[in-house]
């Protein structure tokens, strides 16, 4: 202490040291946690695939972080951090809390800054609770899963299942380096599309070494190493949660809507739109839809109505492209490309623009 | 400088005047309230074994500091303004019959018409954005700079009170003030809400109902969590206050730091920076209103507040202990 009295300048070492220790300590813990490569007995990709499919999950609860950075042009009302609306899952970072006790008892809570949306399944009952609107939606299942907007995977399990469905001869499967996720040792399964026109570089699934449950799911776009989409547990507990966790009684004053959700079609398409067709297979399949209104908007410069004006202003900001297939506008994200042609077609796929032009040419 | 507005028996300052103007503020502090008899001025040296060292002296100093913070008219007016917000919220919602359509309004406003309990939370949530930080910044900014500005700091130190102890007592008073205003807003909100809307079981964010008693317990937890977060801002304010002799400047600087933190926190492109921001974790108080409560989610906020407090309190100590007190 006396040193501090005679040399007051030395006192500044204390706050500086504290700041460095706190920042450095925090960073070091983070780096060690992510760099730690647990020593695990070797396991082949095929064994891991089997592990995944045969995992017997009694129950779990945990916290899931979902990050999506799809390179979408920012649109008002979509995505964002801290929103508790289910449709906002399309982009941004979100925290979810999950409880799972058998296939017919699940609860997923999307945590917003000042609200929460819960999707609770208990037996045949499915509740969707929205704390901010004070609304609850009840439906009864007859063996069908709930339709979440866009079927975005909300848990690593769901995501892994969707990816495994895509494992076919078009995919190279390998084992990556082991990782430590949510304090647990995990193997990493790497899926790579063989087709170079796919925008997906690789998909990695981290699988818990003991429980064989997917702990993390990442989609890395072609040519980068930073995942554009990630679902990962930050905390997990394999205890079977309390059954009371899955009981939902709408609190008094809640607006309760009854009814089954429209089956299979998460978002109602306008009646004029024809059912879209899928061209190609696997990673490079392209969705082609006819949207006649689009052609009208492109042709008629002065269409009346606020909706058309809004559509025009959105379309106007997109880069124009043309080729043998015609002219149109293109939306490029990190994991998908969409082409809106002036003759009223929409082509979407996780592929390069060149592949879309090819499809546009062939489906004219 | 201090000679401008100090009594005639003040020895002239040993350093050149820095141009501080007489603020006309209430002559602050223990000297005015008579807690400290005058002593010999021995500038530059800090005696650690203080006057009447031990518990009584410390308690007396602390008490006089509290009297200072809570006795000042401007602080009382500020607290009244903070307490008015929940009343305004409750009355406004009562008069307009509440929102007819369950919209996506921020905070807990839509829940108020069903249960007056939520007035407290809505008021805390609303004031957290600016009012509470300003109140904390005003008290913390005034703590050292206010004494320096009104020329009483040197007397405090000649008493002699160790500088470290002076800082500790000042910060303790800030902590008490923060806890008091947070509880005050919650309590007034609760009273106004229960009086105008009635109480009853509390619906949590997860759609689960708990008894009013458990709701009150959770509200208390919210107040405690917010107190910790605001005390970190108080530590920053105390440090800024040691840098200047203008209490207003310290207050404004601290408020601006808080507002800057809010602004940076709302820019999604800076998400790598967000966990380090002073105000980032404050909103996590809503975690206490979910079921089951994940206390893990509160940990980052508490750790970050502790980190800020340690760094800025030690910085305040380094700055204050090493500087020449001339006013």
Question: What is shown here, in short?
Answer:
Chain A has seven helices and 19 strands.
Please give the CATH architecture of the largest domain in chain A: Clam
Shape of chain B: globular
CA-to-CA gap between the ends of chain B?
A: 7 Å
**Biggest sheet character of chain A:** 13 strands, mixed
Written overview of the protein:
The complex is a heterodimer of chains A (364) and B (327). Helix content of chain A is 21%, strand content 33%. With 364 residues, chain A is of the alpha+beta class. Chain A folds into two domains: 45-258, outer membrane lipoprotein receptor (LolB), chain A, CATH 2.50.20.10; 277-362, no CATH class. In chain A, the strands form two sheets. In chain A, strands 1, 2, 3, 4, 5, 6, 7, 8, 9, 10, 11, 12 and 13 form a 13-stranded mixed beta sheet that branches. In chain A, a hairpin with a 3-residue loop joins β18 and β19. The radius of gyration of chain A is 25 Å and the shape is globular. In chain B, strands 1-2 form a two-stranded antiparallel ribbon. Chain B has helices at residues 2-5, 29-33, 55-71, 73-95, 109-112, 117-128, 131-149, 153-158, 163-197, 212-243, 247-265, 299-322, and strands spanning 202-203, 209-210. Chain B has one domain (50-322). The radius of gyration of chain B is 22 Å and the shape is globular. By secondary structure, chain B is mostly helical. In chain B, α4 (73-95) packs across α6 (117-128) and α7 packs antiparallel against α11. Chain B is 61% helix and 1% strand. Classes of the chains: A alpha+beta (364), B mainly alpha (327). Chains A and B meet through α2 and β2 of A and α12 of B. Chain A: Residues 93-240 form the MucB/RseB N-terminal domain. Chain A: Pfam families: MucB_RseB.
Write the layout of secondary structure elements.
The complex is a heterodimer of chains A (364) and B (327).
Chain A: H1 2-6, H2 13-35, H3 45-54, E1 60-68, E2 92-100, E3 105-111, E4 116-122, E5 125-130, E6 135-140, H4 156-165, E7 171-175, E8 179-181, E9 184-193, E10 200-208, E11 214-221, E12 229-237, E13 255-258, E14 277-279, E15 286-290, H5 292-299, H6 306-316, E16 320-323, E17 326-332, E18 337-341, E19 345-349, H7 353-362
Parallel strand pairs in A: 6-13
Antiparallel strand pairs in A: 1-2, 1-12, 2-3, 3-4, 4-5, 5-6, 7-9, 8-9, 9-10, 10-11, 11-12, 14-15, 15-19, 16-17, 17-18, 18-19
Chain B: H1 2-5, H2 29-33, H3 55-71, H4 73-95, H5 109-112, H6 117-128, H7 131-149, H8 153-158, H9 163-197, E1 202-203, E2 209-210, H10 212-243, H11 247-265, H12 299-322
Antiparallel strand pairs in B: 1-2
Helix pairs in contact in B: 3-9, 4-6, 4-7, 4-9, 6-9, 7-9, 7-10, 7-11, 9-10, 10-11, 10-12
